[in-house]
Input
Amino acid sequence: DEKLDAYKGTPDQQPQVLHVIGSGDVSERLLSEAEAITTRLKLQPRWTPVQLESELDRALALDPTNVAALTMKAERDRADAAKLAERAVNAHPDDPGAWALRARWPGKAGREALKEGEVDLRKAHELAPDDAEIALDLASHLLGMGKAQQALPFVVQAERAQPWKPVMFYIGALVRAAAGLCDEADGDSVRYARLMTNDGAERPREPEELLAKRLRACRSRGGEAAIHHRRTGDP
Output
């Protein structure tokens, strides 16, 4: 109840009503053995590193292109992460998780990597337009490229889809601050802090310091713009 109270009163957090319509296209299927392994790894977090590595290797031996297994493996084998991501995209071009994985591990650095990452994340969002995590990844990536205005609709989507997650409003505050929407950024910052408190989680110092810095910069830019307008009459 406390978590609901933290966001339900805000005008942009109205509950979404989903109407499920029966369809003859819906069907069930058994998980493959590799899928069963990766599902179990996600649902049971208490694995030792040795056990986890063994299970991942077993899943990839059964299905070398399993996207979930490749995603977990890339996090643990960063030297080969780009190759694993490329394998996922080549084998499963219709899987949004494969494109998101390649965006995370492009195998190169610099501006070109950012451009390719944007293309990959936009492809992932195209394949899964309702996926809040992909929308947030795309918003964060665009923010890193200095495209805060383009990031806004994706961060709004993420916040509305999963308003109980603090990270949604943390990224939202950063995006809005970069876009010059200081009041809205302050609002997101307050929601982030409230949700972190409700979760009982320890609030990490470094992200909060970055957020405070970006909010100050937003206010500073607004003040400079107002002074410029008074002096010159320019908008």
Remarks:
- Residues 17-21, 223-235 have pLDDT under 50 and may be disordered.
- The radius of gyration is 21 Å.
- The longest helix spans residues 205-232.
